[in-house]
Design brief:
The chain has a single domain (26-138), classed as Immunoglobulin-like (Sandwich), CATH 2.60.40.2020. 14% of the residues lie in helices and 40% in strands. The protein contains one helix and nine strands. The N and C termini lie far apart (56 Å).
Length: 140
């Protein structure tokens, strides 16, 4: 009986760990992202359909105080939940982390989505980086 209980506990822990590693949370599921945008898409125009989930995954070093912030949210899209923050591989201090923002396309039209990389408490400083994509939201 004790072996069976121990086995169940170990399996539960493994499921928890692998669930975390797959980057799924109660708010963002990367598997549902169509499309999943990265740094390579900066400056591009991306076609999406109404109802599709658009995710933007960007590198960050959050321990330095820098992070990605939305500069504007166009009316054609709606943000879903809070940004997810994670590391793909286990690393020490200063290792690369990611932030993922999730949106739903709501209405047809062109939508410029812009994010800036900065420290939120430094109000007058220019951002270290910026990211912009134009979403061309197509009707059904």
């Amino acid at each position: 009986m004790k072996k069976r209980t121990s086995l169940c506990i170990m399996l539960g822990l493994l499921v928890s760990v692998f669930g975390w590693m797959s980057c799924k949370s109660g708010e963002i599921d990367l598997g549902s992202c169509r499309p999943l945008l990265t740094e390579d898409d900066n400056g591009k125009e991306i076609p999406v359909k109404i109802g599709e989930t658009v995710c933007v995954k960007l590198r960050a070093q959050l321990g330095t105080g820098f992070g990605w912030q939305l500069e504007n949210i166009p009316t054609q899209i709606q943000q879903k939940g809070k940004p997810l923050q994670f590391q793909e591989k286990k690393g020490g201090p200063g290792s690369t982390e990611f932030q993922v923002f999730q949106f739903t396309a709501r209405e047809a039209g062109k939508a410029d989505l812009k994010l800036v990389y900065k420290r939120p408490w430094v109000k007058d400083a220019a951002p270290e980086k910026s990211y912009k994509v134009t979403l061309s939201v197509l009707g059904n």
